[in-house]
Amino acid sequence: MRKFGVLILWTIVALIIPAVAFAEGDGGGSGLGAGLGAGLAVGLAGLGCGIGQGLTAGNTTAGIARNPGAAGAMFVNFILGMVLIESIAIYGLVIGIMLQGKI
Length: 103
Fold this sequence. Notes:
3 helices, about 0% strand, elongated
């Protein structure tokens, strides 16, 4: 777990240093912040949705394996959960597109 924390820390440092280097100037901006924001919005939304969908599918499959009689009720909740999780990825995509328009 410690290695993962160090990896996250160095990733954040690698993303912040170029932004600080381009922070000079008259405020005209090169679009670096908007591009970085767009990439992070889409990437983190996709990452979170992938984790959420994996957990949902795995737990639904395990529940159906334990109680096959409840498969119908579980399937409805599974589809509803997947739709709600996928909407987060769509929100991230919309935010990324809106930020991309600022570049």
